[in-house]
Amino acid sequence: MTKEQIEIIKNCIPILQKNGEDLTKEFYKIMFNDYPEVKPMFNMEKQTSGEQPKALAMAILKAAQNIENLENIKAYVEHVGKTHVKLNVKKEHYPIVGACLLKAIKNLLNADENTLKAWEVAYGKIADFYIQIEEELYKKQA
User: Please, what are the averages of pLDDT over each run of 10 residues along the chain (142 residues)?
Assistant: First the structure.
C-alpha cells in the first residue's frame, strides 16, 4: 500500500467508529442479494439481532486501525478464523466479500475513486492475512 492509501484508510476510522454497523448492514444486504449461495453459511438470527453486522464492523475497524501492521490483530483474526474454519469458509469466498464491501463503501460513503482504490488494496492485504491464518488453522485441523 502507498502512504496515501494508508492515510485514506486511517482517515476512514472515525466514520467506521460512528457508522460501521450501517456499512456492514449494507454489505450483507448486497451480498445476500448478489450471492445468495453464501447465505446458508450465515446464522440469520445473528443477522436479525445485529450481532453479525456489529462483529464485522468491529473487524473492519480493527483492520483499518492496524492497516500498517496487521500482526497487531493476529489473536483477533485467529479467533475469527476458527469460526470461519467451522463454517468451511475458503479462499475463494474472499473476493465475494471484497466486491460487496466495495459496493457498500461506494453506496454509503459516496467514495471517490481514490478511496475505493485504497479500500480495494487494503481489503486485499487484510484478506490475505485472514486467508494465511485460516489455512494454518485448516492444516492443524487435518
Answer: 97 95 97 94 91 95 97 93 88 95 92 95 96 91 76
84: Cα within 13 Å, side-chain hemisphere: 23
Looking at residue 61, its amino acid is: L
Q: pTM of the entire structure?
A: 0.91
Determine the Cα–Cα distance for residues 116 and 24; give it in Å rounded to an integer: 16
Task: Delineate the domains of the chain, giving CATH numbers in brackets.
Answer: 3-141 (1.10.490.10)
List, by residue number, the catalytic residues.
94, 134
**In this structure, what C-alpha cell is assigned to residue 47?**
443477522
Tell me how far apart the alpha carbons of residues 61 and 137 are, in angstroms, rounded to a whole number. 23
b/e map 83-121, b = 16+ CB within 10 Å: ebbeeebeeebbeebbbbbbbbbbebbebeeebbbbbeb
